Amino acid sequence: MSAVLAIAGVELRIALRNLWVALAVGLMAVFAAVLTFAGSGPTGTLGVDLLAVAVASLTTLTVYLAPLIALLLAFDAIAGEAERGTLALLLTYPVSRLSLVAGKFVAHLGVLAFALAIGFGLAGVMAWAIGGAAGGISPASLLALVKLWWTSVLLGAAFLGFGYALSARARQPGVAAGLAIGLWLVLVVLYDLAMLGALIADNGGVFTRTVFPWMLVSNPADAFRIVNMPAGEAQALASGISGAAKAVSSSFALSALAAWSLGALALGWVAFRKVEP
Amino acid sequence: MSLQITHAIRRFGAVEAISDVSLSVAPGERVALLGHNGAGKTTLMKMILGLTHVDGGSISVFGAAPGTSAARAACSYLPENVAFHRALTGREQLRLLARLRGAGRKQADDLLERVDLSDAADRRIGTYSKGMRQRLGLAQALLGQPRLAVLDEPTSGLDPISRGEFYNLVNELADGGTAVLLSSHALTELEARTDRIAILLKGKLVANAPLAELRSQARLPIRLRVAARPENTEEVAGRLGGIRVNGQSVEISCLQGEKLGHLGRIAALETMIEDVEITPPSLEDLYRHYSGRNPT
Ligand SMILES: Nc1ncnc2c1ncn2[C@@H]1O[C@H](COP(=O)(O)OP(=O)(O)OP(=O)(O)O)[C@@H](O)[C@H]1O
Ligand SMILES: [Mg+2]
After folding, report:
1. Which of 3.40.630, 3.30.70, 3.40.50, 3.30.1490 would CATH assign to domain B221-280?
2. What pTM does this model have?
3. In sequence order, what DSSP letters do the residues of A129-145 get, joined into one string?
4. Disulfide-capable partner of B220 in A256, B36, B234, B281 (CB 3.0 to 4.6 Å)?
5. Residues from B in contact with A at Cβ < 8 Å
């Protein structure tokens, strides 16, 4: 345990000095502020809960940013140590591999959770400041914001796990970075585009009814999207797949997301165990 | 025995990087592992540390298998070309490693001083020179009183003074009962500083003995160089039957057993000569001898 904390402390320091923390917090804060402010235009006058609108757009934003930040933090974790020769060194110390990767994970998850908290907190404060006079913010939308935060952390954990697996397999930071970008593009961008294309081509046929719900939970990013879909269908979501996503219940999607986080971390762990420095 | 390697084998595809190597190191013993580039020194060290698997034979580190927690607690390692994280300071890096090893902060700070890094300790490692990084690597290999130190080219990148200081550290370790296995390409510096020399040639152990024993086994010639007085050079050369070099000197090559006889004859010419110099085969000569021989 002491080893995990020692490693986490040093990793945190490295993340601070490499400006990863500044980058993550900056990205989240700027985008959250812009989205909340943009949402205040049309809704402020109508008296709709500004925060509920903000949560919807923040969900779409987080689907892109949380995996990106997680992969940025994780890609160098094992490949970088391997390249510097410190991996061989650390593995001769009386510390288990599990402690090594757990220490890094604690630090990276902390950075991610902190950046997300700053971004979402800023959105909450802004919605309260702008919308306080008009509709105010309802407890329900506040709860939705909190849920958005901890499910984002879960989503981030899944991509940290993927990142560690890539980093262990690649063994060179450059290769690992390339693989990470590829994975992000596939899981976060191309997967949805492909699904959307298939939905349109299928036009409510067999694919839409049988394959599509499974495809939604087969990707942590989509599971995350469903978990944070508003319960009432009043709000229109930015994502084009939201309509058809009713096929999957929110609690099932949440289990899928949690399973992805655990599964991806296990994947990272298995890949790391196989590494011979 | 601290370290016992018995008939160890390691293959990379069809290539046997380590073939049938048996080697042991006793507590307090300093063993130098020599060999050409690609001979298998690093591979053998990684096998000892459990960083790579063993395809045949066995390795025992204080009775435990390599890589087990008992073995890891007893061993320290200096990898070749180690570079630490650029963003950390030397002190932060060494304190982290000290904590992982179960050694105190104080030992980390003391060791920084021992390897002459106290001035640079609070600077980022990214600003260190190669030799400074190497010394940081050495410092971590001394953390927590290891019982077996495995050092892969520990003096590469060190200046002559630092090399001397490094061997002082090695002697201290050995005096404290630590078994030391180190590899090196700098042969001259090893002469007086190791108890035994092991030479790897294409993965096979071709020599493994104290330096003096290697010398007598190799039966390499000893060179005697006699500096004659200018007016006697002709006569000295004629009587001793050596080769004339530089006009004024006579050189004789002989085996260890013939040395004293030659010296007796030289001493009899006392009035005609100025000086006599005896050069035993250098470690480099020995190394050439052992690694030039076809092992099959
Ligand atoms: N991971 C690997 N995959 C394939 N071959 C390897 C691997 N590691 C080492 N080898 C091969 O094993 C042999 C021994 O390599 P090793 O690194 O042990 O040499 P060395 O004696 O340390 O050389 P040097 O003096 O250059 O450091 C070489 O032929 C090398 O190509
Ligand atoms: Mg080597």
Report:
1. 3.30.70
2. 0.87
3. HHHTTTT---HHHHHHH
4. B281
5. 46, 49-53, 69, 72-73, 75-77, 79-85, 87-88, 92, 96-97, 99-102, 140
